[in-house]
Design goal:
Radius of gyration: 16 Å
Order of helices and strands: EEEEEEEEEEEEEEHEEE
Oligomer: single chain
GO molecular function: metal ion binding
Shape: globular
Structural class: mainly beta
Cofactor: Ca(2+)
Number of strands: 17
Strand content: over 45%
Strand order of the largest sheet: 12-11-10-5-14-3-17
Keywords: Calcium, Disulfide bond, Glycoprotein, Metal-binding, Signal
Bound molecules: calcium ion
CATH topology: Jelly Rolls
Helix content: under 10%
Domain Pentraxin (PTX): 21-222
Subunit structure: Homopentamer. Pentaxin (or pentraxin) have a discoid arrangement of 5 non-covalently bound subunits.
CATH class: Mainly Beta
Amino acid sequence: MHLLTASVLLITTGLSNGDKTTILRLPSPQTTKSYVKLQAATPAMTALTACLRAKTAFTGSGNSHFLSYAAGGMDNAFLFAYNRNGAIYSYVFNSNKDTSVFKVDDGAWHHWCFSWNNRGGKWTVYKDGMPAAAGTGFQTDKTIPANGVWIVGQDQDRLGGGFDATQAYVGDITSINVWNTDNVNFAAVANCGDNFGGNVISWYDVSKEIHEVSTYRKDLCKLK
Ligand SMILES: [Ca+2]
């Protein structure tokens, strides 16, 4: 069901508070063998929001990747990751954005979003539903190409592959949702009930091709 309220794009999923969600657990030590491919029909995007919940105490020697999107001959069309300092960083259209949002690797569950709009190049990082860092002039007027490949837990250096073990994510991750807009109700999306899915990727509905990753199911309101 598609629900438009006050020009904020939300898609209700079949989930409600108390329901269990699939949680991925990417193993230690880092390996290129563990990843999940998400089967999504992706439009060309002049704006984007990616959100997820992650719990990790892992600090890598390189950048640890939650999610990568390769498309149109561009392996870093979009990346959502954190660096060796435990700070959120992203790529949009092959250009990186380091942020001052630290302690991703504090061992606790957090809800993270990165949003971007090519109008003015506005970007924002949200932590647990609240804005934590923002800026402008990042990849203004660029368009992220359509019909690419979404990979959880690895950085693609070619379409669907070219992984580097030192760039793998280690830890738990769930609630990966992607919208082709930055007009999202972030507080609602961060709510533990996880009622709202993205219109590009909806975690509840998206087909997950799982490679050497363990899974468990849990009520998101009871995550520890
Ligand atoms: Ca790459």
